[in-house]
């Protein structure tokens, strides 16, 4: 009888201590210099592509399962890659201006994961709070993880962040119309 009571006490104690110490999250810091964020914006007469630099970032895992993440982008690093010379400098300057991302007063943008759902092997559907120009809105996108690499593609409606220059909702000249959505392709190295 004493052995049974002792066994029950030990089992209860060990079980309770295991429940009190769940598996801890592992945070993997993203190597900002080895990662890339590429953008593509569309207009009636074509498109433009470029990059912005990742300032910092991390992904959180529970075992091998993605459970969270947070990223900061250096908006002052806006760089157009499909133009050269004066055209490039003018577009870079315009994108940094108050007409677009107002990088003087909003030097960074931020993304914080709020929900992560597995959608297949190494794939996740992520919802996060994206902050651009001090305005935070939810976005949903897919993330794939392979070893120490992760990729994501996001489609962003810029008008939700008060970036309305040349938008169709304002009613500009047809050849100057800039589509409201732009794409981000993110390649992360951890």
Automatic annotation (TrEMBL):
Top-rank taxon: Bacteria
Domain Lipid/polyisoprenoid-binding YceI-like: 27-189
InterPro entries found in the cross-reference section: Lipid/polyisoprenoid-bd_YceI, TTHA0802/YceI-like_sf
Pfam families recorded: YceI (PF04264)
Official protein name in the record: Lipid-binding protein
Organism, scientific name: Flagellimonas olearia
